[in-house]
Amino acid sequence: MFNSKIIGLGHYVPNNIVTNDDLSKVMDTSDQWIQERTGIKERRWVKSGDGQSTFTMGLEAAKTAISNSGMKNEDIDLIVFATLSPDYYFPGPGVQVQEALGINTVAAIDIRAQCSGFVYSISVADQFIKTGMYKNVLVIGSELQSRGIDKSTRGRSISVIFGDGAGAAVLTREEDPSKGILSTHIHSEGKHALELATEAPGMGTRWVTDIIKDNDPEDFSYRPYMNGQFVFKHAVRRFSEVINEGLYKNNLEVGDIDMLIPHQANLRISQFIQKKFGLADSQVYNNIEKYGNTTAASIPIALSEAHEKGMIKTGDTVVLAAFGSGFTWGSIIIKW
Fold it and tell me: Is 185 a catalytic residue?
């Protein structure tokens, strides 16, 4: 069996910056209110009419990752695309990327694990490479969330948090078992599914025709809902558990962590985890203040940025960790 390793990274965010002060003009909020609760100062939202979508942003991130890997498009054997905001209800965006890159008939898998989507996708890619079925895998996390949120005061607990963007990674074989992705750990707990969810439209709840027929202005089943305090409580517990699980699996200690990149859900969650593990600021990478919560894109964007800035070096122990809707959570331990 092989290990897998990341050999190329890339990210893309829209040019349109939306600050907290911008939001205060359309809803009852303030820069202080948002920063105190989330740590977010601004986020990127796609502008209407500019032609950008989950697919196009993911494609741009993928092109950069492939270029940085030194590979060609045709070297990719498998595409794994994580998102909760696809361009179409179906098909998923993986096949759109396959067509746009001109990669002939390779498999394309779409992952629906929300904020844990990139961790889940890396785990899938890692297993395909370990078994020898595929050699080079393109993993993408991309989200366009700004078009699906309520930008009024009623929806501010959600709308101030989420942003748009994409990140990507190219993985290939690593024959040295002490290098690359050492282990991945993924979990779920479906009994809490509706604590962070968008219920409609859906085949099992309310379909599009029902929403149009009722035309109920008070129906927000198709808007994201989050039980904030409940999610926070579970997030900090599961983050801690799954990071420790990965360290234990590889006989590592907290002091061995050179870089922790947590899903950018809320700066307060990241700070809680950092304090609990006793990590210095230089050992944790956060960029939520610039981009907000970009869901499946948050870890690859942060990983790409940290690597680009020279904060991740050969031989470093890098830990990725995520928690999100489902509930789903996971971690990845990498020897860079």
Answer: no
